[in-house]
Write a structure and sequence with these properties.
Blueprint (H helix, E strand, L loop, with lengths): L8 E2 L8 E6 L10 H7 L6 E4 L5 E2 L7 E2 L8 H26 L6 E6 L1 H10 L8 E5 L23 E6 L8 H12 L4 E6 L8 H15 L9
Parallel strand pairs: 2-3, 2-6, 6-7, 7-8, 8-9
Antiparallel strand pairs: 1-3, 4-5
Helix pairs in contact: 2-3
């Protein structure tokens, strides 16, 4: 049985949710770390509900925070085991949130930061029907040896992906963006990216605007700058 997760929410500006944007926070944070972005993006995506679930585990290195999976050695095998172990919990949450709103998988977008980006890419690329889009900040596409349950189903079409990274990221080096973009391209996943100059492990205003426009375009929303 998977653990139940929940977190802060921002309701659709229009009053009727036709899309669902799910934020997946980084290691040692919680859903409150990213939900403010949803408030900033309401004008770009007026028909979207935003939710930022707290990861299921208390963080071993930051007792006040949460983690999707432990990170002690930060080696690729540890990350691969971690994303596979945490995926069922996230899948169950996404299924419940979609059912609650009566919308289908193509109304879903995943937005991750750092460890949350690892979860967004791993889980989103393994949903039976692909989400409408995946947006990853300051993370990496986790790769590993095949194991039961880790296979990718055929997704037609696969989700478009935007990766955003700080040029001076001290925790996950900027080269992770290029490695991730290449591995996704090798899998046939349409991927674009943006590198934020002079930025460390975080999200700047340019990254937020790129992300909002990417999601709006993915959902077919016409952004009217005069009404923002």
């Amino acid at each position: 049985m998977t653990a139940a997760i929940d977190g802060p929410r921002v309701a659709a500006k229009s009053g009727k949710a036709r899309q669902l944007v799910v934020f997946l926070h980084g290691f040692g944070a919680d859903g409150n770390d990213l939900i403010e972005i949803g408030r900033q993006w309401r004008s770009f995506l007026p028909d979207a509900d935003f939710v930022a679930p707290h990861a299921p585990e208390r963080c071993a290195m930051s007792p006040m925070g949460r983690q999707w999976f432990p990170l002690f050695t930060r080696d690729p095998d540890e990350r691969w085991r971690g994303v596979n172990a945490a995926r069922p919990t996230l899948d169950a949450f996404l299924d419940a949130e979609l059912d609650k709103r009566g919308v289908d998988e193509r109304a879903l977008a995943l937005v991750g930061f750092s460890q949350g980006t690892m979860m967004a890419l791993h889980t989103g690329l393994r949903r039976r029907v692909a989400p409408r889009a995946i947006l990853g900040y300051s993370g990496i596409h986790v790769l590993g040896a095949a194991q039961p349950g880790s296979e990718r189903p055929p997704q037609n079409p696969p989700p478009p992906v935007l990766l955003v990274h700080g040029e001076e990221d001290e925790l996950i080096p900027a080269e992770a963006l290029l490695l991730s973009a290449n591995s996704l391209a090798d899998m046939g996943v349409p991927t674009q990216w943006h590198m934020s100059a002079a930025l460390g492990h975080g999200i700047d205003n340019a990254g937020l605007i790129h992300g909002a426009l990417f999601l709006a375009q993915s959902f077919g929303v016409n952004v009217d700058y005069g009404r923002r």
